[in-house]
Design goal:
5-stranded mixed β-barrel, 34 strands, globular, OB fold (Dihydrolipoamide Acetyltransferase, E2P), alpha+beta, 5-stranded mixed beta barrel
């Protein structure tokens, strides 16, 4: 369930132009809105009304409260609602009657952003309503306390990161479909004994929705195992089940689908006959359609689609669909977006365009892939050959030089993962080679062109040398021996030149962005071409192998040359098979190959190590000051352009010197590592945690909606210090002082914001000391 923790809400009142002092007050001032006191009144608001931040004074009963205070559901006689808890509130349990003060906040359904939650008395949970699977996914039952019956298909115990809190994840099969169940209070429960049990569960419904607030499912949140009634236990002895033939597993599957058929209309933006297509409506709603239809459709054609909805990875799709073409053509214009827009999940299956620099390209028989770099991020743009006919060669991407600036157009496919199906990465699915436009070519003076020019000059030199040899062949017979010697030397030079030419090509590949496996394959090709060997391969120290080995035949002779790094570490071996292993140049060629392989492996390791060390702290693996300042400058630019807010949170550990004095610097270093892990877990993937001093950290929060949200994140970071740190045999208590600076209220430059956050942190540290 992705109930976003909304810290930004609209102002509770708006400024109105005043009357002139010379004019009488003929109209009364609009009174402040009266607080909303029931869930039904709150949920009846439109998104625009909820976004106005209307005051709430709600008396209700707690139906679910997460152990770490992250989730809070309450219910009164008119319905249930999700409450975004304040930074601090009393310990609550289901059945407690509370008074919630706050304001409304727009979401999938209206939430309450609580400023205070007060405990009133211990009461009883409301009577749950009995619903089927259809009732759980009904939007009207979102946040309500319900009872659902079904069979447990899977049960897994999980623990919250850096916490002793343990909960149970269940997959409940009902007559209408499957439900994801999150259950707290499960100490002493054996999950395996629950499998195949028929149960009745009482819990709170939580809707699942995507970045466009379209519902894709619903979960059930159960406060404890006491809310589970086992109607019929499972047999429990699953280890005694007969073994299943893997090739016949599918014959054991069965799915009951009671979904209603849907009908949508839109323009085709992507079509793979017999597999799938994407349609988009004029209001930018897009959906993926899975169908066996092979009708001759074209991009832009308006079609009617009828099929069944279901959730696929991130967003809802239509499967088992039929496509009904129309004669209308309404082309959809691609929306120009940035990398951050796509990663926010706001454009699933939409036709978009993005600009970037070609970092790499891969041409395969079934598809062409461009790796595009933009705003210090990368994404893939793919042209699938199955979109077209079987004429693969004509419908492939032309070679685009690395470093070219391009604009790619296609359908945005958002991929999700994790327990809550959040955005993980995206790719652009192109429709034709014309979806790539080269905006700017790379500079002509590339490394490859430089080597090509060098090779041309070398060829001229060899040509001149050959001419001299031919002229000398006409000299007197007394010079015949000298001529033969020179010819022999020239042949050796040609072999060396060819070897050096191949070696230069390998060195170019080592310094390029080509993979290590490709470079090793080039080295094996060099050895094979020099010695006319039947088989040559590379065995790496980790067990990996590059190249195809010769068949296991004792009569085939092998030559093995070990590969050592510059520091003497054994990296692997080159192996040559066949009768030509006795070639008189075999040792020289194998030595050149081994040295090139060692250089390739060492260079790739060094590059990866240098990149990591230049951006990350060596002790804690947090971002260092250099990476923080780079991302801060980028965030400043984006915030100034888009008129958005972001925050800097300065974190300084309290009494860290005392930890070093009492336990020693080693324990202090281990404490810094654990502190970094806990703080990182409290931040989002887009946020940056950097270590800028001995015990000083800065968190860059690139998107906040108000100072209140920044304060909420700061409180979440402080919660990381609630429990002691277990380091070896010691239990170390630590705290922190935090200072916050919000752009643009507290400053417009990097130095101003850091100064404000630093000053606020020291002010809090001084206040705590007093």
């Amino acid at each position: 369930m992705r109930k976003s923790i909304l810290a930004l809400f609209l102002a509770l009142s708006f400024w109105k132009p005043g009357l002139s002092l010379s004019q009488p007050l003929s109209h009364p001032v609009n009174p402040a809105p009266r607080p909303l006191t029931t869930v039904g009144a709150i949920r009846a608001l439109s998104p625009a009304q909820a976004g106005a931040g209307l005051p709430v004074d709600l008396r209700a009963v707690v139906t679910y409260e997460e152990a770490d205070g992250g989730l809070l559901f309450v219910q009164d006689s008119t319905g249930g609602i999700y409450v975004i808890p304040p930074a601090s509130m009393p310990l609550l349990q289901p059945g407690d009657e509370v008074l919630v003060d706050g304001v409304t906040a727009p979401n999938f359904s209206t939430d309450v952003f609580a400023t205070e939650v007060r405990f009133l008395s211990h009461a009883r949970l409301p009577g749950p309503i009995s619903v089927s699977w259809r009732g759980v996914v009904d939007r009207a039952n979102d946040c309500r306390y319900v009872t659902v019956s079904g069979t447990i298909r899977s049960a897994t115990l999980r623990s919250a990161p850096a916490s002793s809190h343990t909960y149970l994840i269940l997959d409940l099969q009902t007559d209408g479909g499957s439900l994801h169940v999150h259950m707290d209070g499960v100490q002493g429960i054996d999950p395996i004994r629950l499998l195949d049990s028929k149960v009745k569960l009482s819990g709170v419904v939580g809707a699942i929705f995507d970045g466009k607030l379209r519902q894709t499912g619903a979960d059930l949140w159960v406060s404890s195992a006491a809310r589970m009634e086992i109607l019929q236990p499972g047999h429990g002895n699953f280890a005694g089940l007969p073994l299943t033939d893997i090739s016949r597993m599918f014959s054991s599957s069965y799915v009951s689908n009671q979904s209603q058929r849907v009908h949508v209309r839109g323009s085709v933006t992507l079509y793979q006959p017999g597999m799938e297509l994407v349609v988009e409506t004029p209001d930018r709603q897009a959906v993926l359609v899975q169908t066996f239809d092979q009708s001759p459709l074209r991009v832009g054609q308006v079609v009617d689609v009828v099929g069944f909805p279901y959730v696929h990875e991130y967003s809802e799709v239509i499967n088992q669909a039929n496509v009904l073409p129309t004669q209308r053509v309404e082309a959809v214009q691609a929306v120009p977006i940035q990398w951050d827009d796509a990663m926010a999940g706001q454009y699933p299956y939409n036709l978009i365009s993005m600009d970037g620099r070609v970092a790499a390209e891969v041409h395969e028989r079934h598809q062409d892939t461009l790796v595009i770099e933009t705003a210090r991020h990368v994404f893939s743009a793919i042209l699938s050959r199955s979109v077209w006919s079987q004429d693969f060669d004509r419908n492939s991407l032309p070679a685009i030089p690395t470093g070219s600036t391009v604009r790619v157009t296609g359908v945005c496919l958002v991929h999700a993962g994790g327990p809550w199906s959040t955005e993980q990465w995206f790719e652009i699915q192109m429709r034709s080679p014309y979806d790539v436009t080269v905006l700017a070519n790379p500079s002509w003076w590339t490394v490859s062109h430089l080597f090509a020019l060098s090779a041309a000059l070398l060829a001229l030199v060899l040509t001149a040398l050959l001419r001299v040899i031919l002229l000398q062949s006409k000299v007197h017979k007394q010079t015949q021996q000298l001529r033969l010697t020179m010819e022999s030397e020239a042949a050796r030079e040609r072999r060396i030149a060819l070897l050096e030419s191949e070696r230069a090509r390998v060195l170019e590949a080592i310094n390029s962005m080509r993979s290590l496996e490709d470079v090793l394959a080039m080295i094996l090709s060099l050895i094979a071409s020099q010695l006319q060997s039947g088989a040559c391969w590379c065995e790496l120290a980790g067990g990996a192998r590059v190249g195809d080995p010769a068949p296991d035949d004792p009569s085939v002779l092998l030559v093995r040359r070990d590969i050592f790094s510059g520091a003497g570490e054994h990296l692997g071996s080159l192996v040559l098979a066949g009768a030509d292993v006795y070639h008189r140049h075999a040792g020289e060629v194998m030595e050149v190959g081994a040295s090139l392989a060692a250089l390739a492996i060492d260079t790739r390791r060094l590059y990866e190590t240098l990149v990591h060390r230049s951006q990350y702290d060596q002790l804690t693996n947090a971002a260092n000051r250099f990476l923080l300042e780079s991302r801060l400058e980028e965030t400043l630019t984006l915030a100034a352009r888009n008129k958005t807010h972001f925050a800097l949170i300065y974190i300084d550990l309290d009494q860290f010197k005392r930890v070093n004095d009492v336990y020693g610097h080693r324990i202090g270093d281990l404490l810094l590592q654990q502190v970094t892990e806990r703080l990182s877990e409290k931040l989002r993937s887009m946020d940056t945690l950097a270590r800028v001093g001995g015990d000083e950290f800065i968190a860059l929060i690139p998107i906040v909606r108000s100072r209140a949200e920044a304060e909420e994140i700061a409180q979440r970071l402080l919660h990381a210090f609630r429990s002691p740190f277990t380091i070896e045999e010691f239990s170390v208590h630590s705290g922190a002082s935090i200072g916050i600076a919000v752009y643009p209220e507290d400053g417009l430059t990097r130095d101003e914001l850091q100064s404000v956050a630093d000053t606020a942190m020291y002010a809090r540290k001084a206040g705590a000391a007093d």
